[in-house]
Structure formats: structure tokens, C-alpha cells
Amino acid sequence: MGGAISFIRQTEQSSPAREKPLCSPAGLSCQNSECSKTALIKGQHGGDVYRNKVRLDFSVSLNPLGMPESVKEAAKRGVDLSGQYPDWRQDALREKISNHFQVPPHCILPGNGAAELIYAFCQALRPKRGLCFVPCFQEYEEALLSAGAVFCPVFLPEEEAFQFPPQDRLEFWMDELVRKNNLGMGDVVFLCNPNNPTGVALSAESIHIIARCLEKKKIWLFLDECFLPFLDSGYSFLDLPYMDKHERASLSCFICAAGASQMGLNACGIKSMHERANPSPFICAAGASQMGLNACGIKSKNDNEEAGSKSFAGRVFLLRAFTKIYAMPGLRLGFGICFDMDLYSKMRSVLQPWNISLPAQLAGIAALDEEKYVRVTRGLVRQEHSFLSEKLSQGLAEKTYPGNANFILFKARSDLSARLLEKGILIRDCRNFRGLSAGFFRIAVRTHEENIQLIRAFEESLSR
Q: What is the pTM of this model?
């Protein structure tokens, strides 16, 4: 227990070194309205090839194999069909995702990229307070502030390589953070797994511990798994053995069918079986509600111990994206998995209709058939991550931080990005991440040939 207390004190007493402190440390609420304006340069992300002459882009962490040909062809078909409106409910896309992940289609919410769903979640939930583990993706903070929430940053200590506490200390640590940040019912904790920009990944068991701690206080967990497809199994919330995919899908579909029956409707939420073939998420929510059930099919957490152990899934919003793993950022496609039908409906209501274009919908459907492509990608990323980490540690970087993702965070001379850009190589300057400062950089794991070019340019920039 003493180790856990020590870890918390580290995050409380000091934030990572900065030229100018931007907010109170310790994951305590920052009440300074100017803080977010100073800490972040809104809209500054990687991939700005429009204002820079770039021949190699290491600033965005996309699949180094590029967009699969089948996905390109599907997007082209979508362009040919774009004389008509896209399906506003994205039935075919949701059905494809449902089959791929064994999650009921009425729990799947597509978005115009993952970022749209981050903002829609905050606008729909309207939490009073939102906690983030920093450094992390800046849009969590921006989305929380846009919804009027108090932003509560928890600084992961640089001296611990931005790691989370060990699994046996996580529960105590989370309970303390909830208490110190005054989180309560309806608030949210954002967690990126693996984290961006550090690359630190938590096991599925660790995620379960965090979700269970938050469920006790009826706090939401927003779980961003956009980079997770680059990792092998064992890290996703969907990998949990007690969240059996087939069992969960059958249970949820049964609950919706039974609830709809109470309303004189069939399992698809329609009066006549000939009207429509796809289930309505709104009817499913209403049907479950009439039976006094939540979206997980659980009467009450006191009904039985087994039900109580599963009910925490109702307050986990799982975010995925096609952007990174299929290298299709320009098509803008992500999706969320939400077992709480009330929140699902509210998020639908804040999203614009026809938010997913036809090219994006067809590309997403095609992408999910690219299983071999994903397997090859994982092998390549493992190999090249090791290669780049070794080269960086041989004197090129001041410090390299261990991670599991398809990118690497490191420290080097503060003008490195400018020097590399002179050679047409773009890397991610991370100084605008809360919790980081000048001299922090992130590079994507690319192909071996591209990685060699980066290392050579790096060496030349240091010799000047």
C-alpha cells in the first residue's frame, strides 16, 4: 500500500518540467480559465503536409503499409454512388462491425472520425467533471471544456516513464484519484489504451479494475482503443474472458427482443416484419427500459453477484477508429460501442444526420475483411519498433520511453523537428501536449526503408 501512496504523491507534488506552470498539479482541478488556452494550441496535430514540404511523414501514426487496395476500391465505388444520400443509420456498416466484434449492432455508433464521437459523448453526457491522465490526446480536454465540464488532469510522472501503477495498486490509486478530484455520478474518466503520445498500454485486466472502481461511484469510463489494433490480443476491453462476446451479443439481443415484445413490436422494433430488416436502437432502449433492465440486461446490481460483476460494462464507452490501422485518415471513420441505450440515443441526437459519407461507409465495410493485412502489420510494427528504439537509444535521443504502440516518444534537442523538416521529414513536436515540454517528440513506426532514412537524417542533424 505504501508504494501506491508514494505514486500518488509523485503526481500530486510536481508536474513535469515546463517553461511556465500551466495549472495546479496532482490531478486537482484547474480553475484558471486561461489554462487550456495557454497549454494547448488548439487544432495543432501531426500530418500538416499542407503547410510544409514533406517527403516522409513520421508525425502521424498510421499503418506503414498504407491503405489496402480493397479499401481504396470500395471508397471509389462510394464516390460513384455519391449522387445519392448515404444511409443515415449506417445499417450495413453497423452490421459489419457487429459481426466482426461480436457486439450487437444497436450498440454501435459510427462517427465522422473518432474525434466527432469524443465531442458527441461530452455533449450528450454533460459531465460536471472529467479526468484525464496526461500527457494524452488533447481533444479529450477540448471536448470536456466545450461541454462546460471542469477538466481534471492527472500527471503521469516522467520519472516513472509515464507508466500507470502496477495492477495490485490500481484499485487504491483510482479510489484516491476519484476522491481527490471530487468525481461523482455522471462524471467521466478518459483513458487511452495504448496511450497517445506515450505508447503505454494497460492489460484488459487492469482496465477491468479501473472500470470496476468507477462503476462503484457511477462514473463513466471513456476508453479510447484507436491504436489498439496494432497490438496483439490481451489488451482490449472486449478481450475480457468474463465479457464473452457471443454470450454478450445473445443476451443483449434477447433483452431488446423481449422488451420490444412488451410494446407489441417484433425483435426488429417494427409492427410488421416487412417494413424493415434492421433493429432500431431507440426501440431497443425503450423496450429494455420497460422491463426495468439496463443495456447490459441486468435488473439490478443486487440481483446476484454474477450480474453485478458484469453491470460495469454499461458505463464504459469504447472508442475505435479505422483511421490508424487502415491508414485512411482522409475518409474520417470511427465508431463507438455503447451498452447504455439512453446515452446512445442522446449521442445520436447531437450528431448531424448523414455524418458518414458513402465512400467512408463502403471503405469501412471493406476494411474489416483485411484480417491478413492487420496480422502482417502487427509483425512489422513489432520488428520496426524494436529497430527504432535501439537506434534512438544509441546516443541519438537523450531518453526513449518504453511503449507498445506504433509510435515512440523520446527526448532530444529542442530544435530537432525544425532540422529534420529542412530535410523534408516531419515528426511530431510534442511540446503542446499537457505534461510535456520542448524537446519531447513522437515518431511513427514506418517501413524499414523509411526508418533507415529517418535515422540517417537524425544523425546528420546532430553532426551540424
A: 0.81
